Amino acid sequence: MGAGQSWRAHGVLAGEVSGVRPVRAQTASGSDGLYQQNHCGVYRSQDEGDSWQEISEGLPSDFGFPLAIHPHESSTIYVIPLKGAEFRCPTGGKLAVFRSRDGGASWEARDRGLPERSYSKVLREAMTTDDSDPAGIYFGTDTGKVFGSLDGGDEWFVVADDLPPIFAVSSYAH
Predict the structure, then answer these.
(1) Which residue of 14, 78, 116, 130 has the fewest CB atoms within a 10 Å radius of its CB?
(2) If you count DSSP H runs as helices and E runs as strands, how many of each does the chain have, helices first?
(3) What is the pTM of this model?
(4) What CATH superfamily classification does 26-160 receive?
(5) Contact 44, 104 (CB under 8 A)
């Protein structure tokens, strides 16, 4: 059979809703790993989705939406945790991107250049990377700001401001 001619369901249940499958799954180029973040945590699968391991330990919350994978380092991933379903804003009012360089075994907050105080949320499709070297990471908020990092997430800057709510971000680098 050709690619896409047969399908098999894989996933982690997302919360109390029976039958809900992962809301975000991505593969890193050149890697067999799958990652996803949903309302219940961040997960990794190393067997094409047959089984999933939660990798949320070390994050300030297990709730969130966006997830991006470094384009050249398949075990480097980025997430933005939110407080929870009732208050979908950064935990403690502090916007931060959490980076793991070891497939989710440990996490570090990356917030240099981001606002000291923020209650903006980042939606599911509003985070991406580019193919540059070093890689750029970008995300947009519901308050119309787009932030970027050109050094793998170490330092952030405002790319655009005063836009409508950002629902999706994509990038192109050549």
Answers:
(1) 116
(2) 0, 12
(3) 0.82
(4) YVTN repeat-like/Quinoprotein amine dehydrogenase (2.130.10.10)
(5) yes
